[in-house]
Amino acid sequence: MPQLSDPAGIGSRPISVALGELAIAAGMIGESVTITNDFPANTLCQIWKYYSQTLGAGNVVHVRAKRDLKDFALHVASVRAVFVHVPRLYQEVAWTIQMAGTANMSPRPAVFCGFQHGEPDSDPGLTLPLTNHQREVAAIHTWAAVHAECPVVEVGFPSSVEYDARLEAILRPSSSEGIGLGFREQRIVEALVEGAAFLHSTANQDSDSLVTTLTDYEFVRRLLCSQLVRPNRELCEPLAADMIRRANVYLSVKLGGDRRNPFRVEDEDGYRRSHSSSLKRDAITRRELADLGNVHSRMVATLIEYLQRADDGYARYLQMGCTGESTPESRWRRLSARDLARRLTSWSLKQVRTHFDRLHQRGLITAERENANGPLRYRLPEELENVDSPYSQLPTSRTSTQSHTAA
User: Fold this and answer.
1) Which CATH number belongs to the domain containing residue 133 in this structure?
2) What is the pLDDT of residues 284-318, one digit of tens each?
3) DSSP letters of 124-184?
4) Pair 218, 283 in one domain
5) 273 φ/ψ angles, rounded to the nearest 5 degrees
6) Are residues 123 and 246 in the same domain?
7) Are residues 132 and 199 in the same domain?
8) Three-class SS state of 3
9) 55 secondary structure, DSSP code
10) How large is the average pLDDT for residues 4-18?
11) Same structural domain for residues 219 and 261?
12) Other C-beta atoms within 10 Å of 269: how many?
């Protein structure tokens, strides 16, 4: 019989781990969900190793090369999870899954990718993109250190899925406006709710006929409303916005009017003298942007030390992308630059390529001067700056049932 990790403690697991478990459960009742993210490799390894251990090595497939696709196609119905390592192989994996099986509840594997793909219209399946969030990464490693292994439970495949009438009113309202989600996003909600019901039924050892409940919906809604979930559209998210804001703070210091700034360089190509935004070089290099994302780098500490001496330094520090609650202005000059740096969002050189360079090359990130003597500032189109979870407007079960009762 197939097995899953014991769902008893799923509510205390990191959000990304729990979403993956829901996706695996949804696949076992017929709906394959892909989860993409660009977590650091060591973080991704912790999550994938956990899934592999709970599902069993024979129930997972790693796709690293073309030759792996042929083997996967032969075992698509018996595999519970597919780990795709190479972006160019994802589409073939997704098409193989969607074209396999004819029955509505034929088991299909969940798919996990250690990268983001920015073309949802070419994706035949349901994809849930997650963003690389520093607090989530820390939560994963803290959790993995204590829960390296998880008890497993054997499960059977259910014969049918039914919806509680009150939940039906939330997910499939009579209003033509629906719940404010696109078709794919709504199907993702339904698939994960069904996955939650399946996990709930395994805990009760009753998985023959599933009935989704408001409790299942609320659990899924809470996870999907997290800042970890990003829009399934252009390759833009809070990380890209943080890169742009921090780059602009750095450029305002390096290429500003203060000759005493620690990053000042000779203006050999007339950068400061030119009033044009069409220069032979970029305002910031990939290496500089990567160093700005390394919160332990000397560059970040030096930049913060400079800001601590500037009149408007606190306001500019807040623009650099802080995680959690910001440090009060009354305290921030007394803290060390290293301590303040650790409170900023971090990113890697790989993420500079996937979250900044790609948008820049497509012309979605542009640089222009605010005034004739000022440095270039990077800008992002306003319509791409709204990076809230697309599920943030999902109604709570209480609000929805009260409205239904009143009607």
Assistant:
1) 3.40.50
2) 888 999 999 999 999 999 999 999 999 999 999 99
3) -SEEEEB---HHHHHHHHHHHHH-SS--EEE----SEEEE-HHHHHHHS-SSTTTTS--HH
4) no
5) -80, -20
6) no
7) yes
8) strand
9) H
10) 90
11) no
12) 11
pLDDT tens across 31-48, in order? 999 999 888 899 999 999
Q: Are 156 and 1 in contact (CB under 8 A)?
A: yes
Give how far Cα 65 sits from Cα of 109, 117, 119, 200, 407, Å: 19, 18, 21, 36, 56
57: Cα separation from own chain's centroid: 26
Strand partners, 62: 83
Give the number of other Cβ atoms within 10 Å of residue 367's Cβ.
Answer: 20
Select from 396, 405, 404, 406 the least CA-distant residue to 173. Answer: 404
Q: Where are the alpha helices (DSSP H) in 87-131?
A: 90-99
Q: Which tokens go with 50?
A: 């956990």
**Closest listed residue to residue 242, CA positions, set 355, 118, 361:** 355
Element (H, E) at 60: strand 60-63
Distance CA 243, CA 246 (A): 5
Cβ–Cβ under 8 Å, residues 90 and 84: yes
- Print the domain residue range for 338: 238-384
Instruction: Yes or no: say if 186 and 233 are a contact pair by the CB < 8 Å rule.
Output: no
144 shares a domain with 289: no
Sequence-ordered list of residues with C-beta below 8 angstroms from that of 139, at least 6 positions apart, any chain: 14, 15
Tell me: do 167 and 275 sit in the same domain: no
Residue 217 is inside which H or E element, if any? helix 214-224
User: How many domains does the chain fold into?
Assistant: 2
335 shares its domain with 254: yes
Residues 6+ apart with CB under 8 A from 40: 132, 137, 348
In the block, residue with structure tokens 């009113």: 169
190 and 65 within one domain: yes
